[in-house]
Amino acid sequence: MDIEINPRGEINTEALDATLRAALGAAFLGLTVGGGKLVLHLTDDAPVSAVEQARGLVMAHDPAQLSPRQQAEKQRQARLQQAREQYRGELLDPLVFEQTNPQLGLLARKIAWLEQELNDLRAT
After folding, report:
1. What does the alpha-carbon distance between residue 91 and residue 88 come to, in Å, rounded to a whole number?
2. End-to-end Cα spacing for the chain
3. Which three-class secondary structure string do you get for the chain?
4. Closest Cα to residue 20, out of 63, 56, 44?
5. From 28-32, 52-56, 110-114, the region with the lowest mean pLDDT
6. Considering the entire predicted model, what is its pTM?
7. CA angle, corner 9, sides to 16 and 15, nearest 5?
8. Residue 111's pLDDT band (cuts 50, 70, 90)
9. Residue 8 contacts by C-beta under 8 Å, 6 or more apart in sequence?
10. Which of 15, 52, 54, 109 is most solvent-facing, going by the fewest CB within 10 Å?
11. CB distance 23 to 57 below 8 Å
12. Are the C-beta atoms of 63 and 48 separated by less than 8 Å?
């Protein structure tokens, strides 16, 4: 059964989908968004209470609330940005390592090369 709802505003489809799946379980099949409308797809045997619960969850939906996957991605991006800022400007000097151990010097040169490659990729 499909339930068409005119959303009040923005929709975070991934978060709304995760919320509906957690609340309705197997009765919820998915959602589609288009043309200013939101369509919830429920099983044909979904109880009336599930339909009403789905409507309530859509109406209470806060698009600023992130899905678990979105939260994890946001945290990953923040950690990456923090590491970029922490090590920005510090250049690795392979010669320091070369004097200690030629293999460490080779590793340091490779790391310096990879760092430059990443910086070049990020710049494009």
Report:
1. 8
2. 47
3. CEEEECCCCCCCHHHHHHHHHHHHHHHEEEEEEECCEEEEEECCCCCHHHHHHHHHHHHCCCCCCCCHHHHHHHHHHHHHHHHHHHHCCCCCCHHHHHHHCHHHHHHHHHHHHHHHHHHHHHHC
4. 56
5. 110-114
6. 0.67
7. 15
8. confident
9. 59
10. 52
11. yes
12. no
- In this structure, are residues 28 and 21 in contact, taking their beta carbons and an 8 Å threshold? yes
Residue burial 37-61, b: 16+ Cβ < 10 Å; e: rest: ebebebeeebeeebbebbeebbeeb
Contacts of 59 (CB under 8 A, 6+ apart): 8
Q: What is the predicted pLDDT for the residue at 7?
A: 80
Residue 66 has pLDDT above 90, yes or no: yes
Please give the pLDDT value at position 70: 96
Tell me the average pLDDT across 55-82: 94
| Span 77-104, average pLDDT | 83
Mean pLDDT of the chain: 90
